[in-house]
Design goal:
The complex is a heterodimer of chains A (442) and B (249). Chain A has two domains: 26-332, ABC transporter involved in vitamin B12 uptake, BtuC (Orthogonal Bundle); 338-441, no CATH class. Helix content of chain A is 73%, strand content 3%. Chain A is built from 16 helices and four strands. Chain A has helices spanning 20-44, 48-74, 82-102, 111-130, 135-155, 157-160, 184-206, 209-225, 231-257, 267-280, 286-305, 309-323, 327-333, 336-340, 347-380, 400-441; strands at residues 166-167, 259-260, 387-390, 393-396. In chain A, strands 1-2 form a two-stranded antiparallel sheet. In chain A, a hairpin with a 2-residue loop joins β3 (387-390) and β4 (393-396). In chain A, α10 crosses α11 (286-305). Chain B has 249 residues and is of the alpha/beta class. The chains are: A mainly alpha (442), B alpha/beta (249). Chains A and B meet through α8 and α9 of A and α2, α3 and α4 of B.
Chain lengths: 442, 249
């Protein structure tokens, strides 16, 4: 079983998990640490662009975790999760404009509740149709509903605002505690607060009877029926709650951008959250968080560096599907047995083999990037001359030399990389055996 | 006289043109251990699927304590106090052994779709899960993924999931299939223990197990019950001998 390493098995807390302040402190400690991290991050990354990126990451974390309630927890592959994100955003932006227009006494930081409510509502409406079935049928219905809403967004102009979308002004709502939410730093903290709240809620949800049955339905929906549970009801509740949290993410995005347009409900956004959750890893809670952070970072950074950033994005996804189907978190959690058994002895050798494997892997990557960029330059930007600058090196795409160099890097690097796999595998195997014997000795 | 716990009235099941169950009537009173035997392909598992709601009968009635449950989905029948195991092990493979049993405990203790309580904070759930693990002797396997257990351990877990909900009526589909003699003996002891004070219907091929456990035996041949009686009389029955015991011996 290759799966043994990927699933975090909940250790049953036998001696009264709820017992006393110590238990509460133990549960709360990681969250307090995360809260502190959220609080100090903008003091470390002080630039305006960093603050914007951190805000986007917070939104994406909520969105990706809500998606994983379906894919990872309940085994539902949705191609239309942006519907609840986008509709949450649209309703939130209309709510903000209504609040501004009618001078209602509602502060900005409560607007995500509007997103939550509308995400839940649309989750209930569309979920009642789509969650009757699981598997391929569910995936196809989610795709259809996604397309339905995306195409309505261009037709129902009064609600979706047509091409340009609906804009608002987040500073015009009721000011409390002297916050006008003009500066990005205030928005960051608003997002961080809601992100943390949603993370705690979604984490807690996994550990309820309902969350437990989501996993059971994912694993074996039929058996769940014979212990008293209606899998359709479990899926429906999971879907509605995932809609709720997606709605919060959409409302946060609406607040952040002061604009929502039809792209928010579209297939692109649905695909993005799928990629984030999958690349990060759907098998445990931290996976979608890692994925959301990485995907947001790549989206912002790569699109600055290269025009074909989406191609790299796709290649990364293919790479994860092929080589790390449990995502980045899955790769990290593979090391859990070592960590749990306190078996650090084989660690130096293991890390050394990782470094050995990394060198040809980076060479492969460099070769691949060179081939892609030179090809793109020749085919699309030929009018700008034949030279491009890559990794601070000027390459002449009209000459054979850089092409040959790139292909040698790509092919040779990959062949070498493959040669390192057995070495890594052997070191890994020895480490696990060591950890198991160490575990048994204790 | 109270209504039988399980009552089948002229139940039939066709798959296309093929008649699998051809008019079965059966009444099992409360507290009885009832074995269903018969050759391969007689329709024993199909009969279980009809009783437990996995299939809907083509015609006929299934009653549970007098209530008509024909065509009800499995989870509604389960909530009325009937629980079943499967011939082909049917567990939650990537959940831990502990979680497997816990899932089977939740509904019966009334937690339903509760999403506001921590599942590990529920003392009654923990205690019941623990008790079941002890009963099926898998306590030291609790943290393992169910999919990596040995075959016999998975069979034990299958029974554990079946009895975890404290159902009044238990259907076991070949609980000792594929087990060694020692494992089968342990399974029989377990079945004897867990069927105390409950109604048990069991499909079984091992005649030692059947005659050891059953209060009454029904013989199913080609979708019909040809005899339903006490073990001693079933042994004597000529039709049964011709159809089944004779050829098997």
């Amino acid at each position: 079983m290759s799966d043994v390493t990927t699933d975090v098995v909940n250790v049953p807390a036998r001696a009264g998990a709820s017992a006393g302040l110590a238990g509460v402190a133990r549960h709360a400690a990681p969250w307090l640490a995360l809260a502190v991290a959220f609080a100090v991050l903008p003091m470390i990354f002080t630039s305006g662009s960093a603050l914007t990126m951190l805000s986007l990451m917070g939104i994406m974390i909520v969105f990706a975790l809500s998606y994983n309630m379906l894919l990872g927890e309940t085994g539902l592959l949705s191609f239309g999760h942006a519907v609840y994100y986008g509709l949450g955003g649209f309703v939130a932006v209309h709510a903000m404009n209504t609040v501004i227009h009618d001078r209602l006494p509602v502060p900005l930081f409560l607007i995500p509740l509007v997103g939550a409510f509308s995400g839940l509502l649309f989750g209930i409406i569309f979920g009642s149709v789509s969650t009757r079935r699981a598997g391929t049928a569910f995936a196809m219905i989610s795709l259809g509903l996604g397309e339905l809403v995306a195409s309505s967004s261009l037709i129902l102009r009064s609600f979706f605002g047509g091409e340009e979308g609906v804009s608002t002004n987040r500073t015009k709502l009721l000011h409390v505690f002297g916050l006008n939410f003009g500066p990005q730093i205030e928005i960051y903290y608003l997002i961080a607060f809601w992100c943390l709240l949603c993370m705690v809620a979604m984490f807690a949800l996994r550990r309820t009877p309902f969350g437990s049955m989501c996993n059971a339905v994912r694993e074996n929906a039929e058996r769940a029926q014979f212990v008293g549970y209606n899998p359709q009801a479990v899926r429906f509740i999971a879907f509605a709650l995932a809609g709720l949290f997606a709605g919060v993410a959409g409302a946060l995005a609406a607040i952040n951008f002061e604009l929502v347009n039809s792209a928010a409900v579209g297939a692109g956004q649905s695909g993005l959250v799928l990629l984030a959750a999958y690349i990060g890893g759907t098998g445990n809670f931290i996976g979608p968080v890692i994925g959301a952070v990485l995907v947001t970072w790549l989206e912002v950074m790569l699109s600055d560096i290269t025009d074909v950033w989406q191609l790299y994005f796709g290649l990364l996804f293919i790479g994860v599907v092929m080589f790390a189907p449990n995502g980045i978190a899955g790769l990290l959690m593979m090391h859990e047995p070592l960590w749990r058994a306190r078996a650090y002895g084989p660690l130096p050798r293991l890390l050394l083999t990782y470094v050995i494997a990394l060198v040809p892997a980076l060479a492969t990557l460099a070769g691949l990037i060179a081939v892609i960029e030179m090809t793109y330059h020749r085919s699309v930007k030929a009018s700008e001359g034949t030279t491009i600058s890559l990794f601070h090196v000027t390459l002449d795409t009209a000459s054979f030399v850089p092409w040959i160099a790139a292909i040698v890097l790509l092919a040779g690097g990959f062949l070498l990389f493959r040669r390192t796999w057995p070495v890594v595998g052997a070191a890994w195997h020895d480490a696990i055996v060591y950890a198991q014997t160490a575990g048994k000795a204790k | 006289m109270t209504a039988p716990v399980i009552e089948l009235v002229d139940v039939r099941k066709n798959f296309g043109a093929t008649k699998i169950i051809r008019g079965v009537s059966l009444a099992v009173p409360a507290g009885e251990r009832h074995a269903i035997i018969g050759p391969n392909g007689a329709g024993k598992s199909t009969l279980f699927n009809l009783i437990s709601g996995r299939f809907t009968p083509t015609s006929g009635k299934v009653r549970l304590c007098g209530e008509d449950v024909t065509g009800m989905p499995p989870y509604l029948i389960n909530r009325r106090g009937l629980s079943r195991s499967f011939q082909v092990t049917n567990i939650f493979p990537r959940l831990s052994v502990w979680e497997n049993v816990r899932c089977a405990v939740l509904w019966s203790l009334g937690y339903k779709y509760s999403f506001w309580r921590g599942v590990e904070d529920l003392a009654d759930v923990r205690d019941r899960t623990e008790a079941i693990l002890e009963e099926i002797e898998l306590c030291d396997r609790r943290l393992l993924q169910a999919g990596v257990l040995t075959y016999a351990e998975q069979r034990a877990l299958e029974i554990g999931i079946t009895i975890a909900g404290d159902a009044r009526i238990i259907l076991l589909d070949e609980p000792s299939a594929g087990m060694s003699a020692a494992e089968a003996a342990r399974a029989v002891a377990l079945i004897r223990k867990v069927s105390q004070g409950r109604t048990l219907i069991m499909i079984e091929h091992d005649m030692d197990v059947v005659f050891d456990l059953a209060d009454r035996i029904s013989v199913l041949v080609y979708g019909q019950i040809i005899a339903s009686d006490f073990p001693a009389r079933i042994k004597q029955d000529r039709a049964v001998q011709a159809a089944y015991l004779g050829t098997a011996a």
